[in-house]
Structure prediction request, 135 residues.
Amino acid sequence: MKKGLLFLLILGSFSVVKAQKIDSLFFNLYTDSLKKGTHNYINLDAKMSDGSWMPLTSTHLDFSSSYGYFDKNDLVLPDTPTCEFVKVKAVLKADSTIWRETTIWIKKNPDDEYLPTNEEILREMRKGKTKKKKG
Prediction:
């Protein structure tokens, strides 16, 4: 009797535990435009059936694009693109009915922003320590 009751209890606990299912996909891009001549990481998150979120990679997704090519999660563009934007599509490998598509513009301006060297940053930090604010 006790063994039968224990068996039913264990069997019942297995039916309550269910694996989470992916409900939908969402692009979570780190930038608002793609850079020319480089790898652009395309980040997707899955919304799970319990409301939690999970990041996905190319092991979970099939990526495609209207321009360039994918290397895992990276969309690679040439130095001189022939278009202004790229349509990117991600399809869940386990369930092809779950997919998401977005349009991402290609950055037009050059990356000529000046970034200070480590030495310049340290020099500025030292200057700040020697000057004391009066207050």
Observations:
- The helical segments are 2-16, 118-130.
- The beta strands are 22-27, 33-34, 39-41, 44-48, 53-56, 61-65, 69-71, 74-76, 85-92, 99-106.
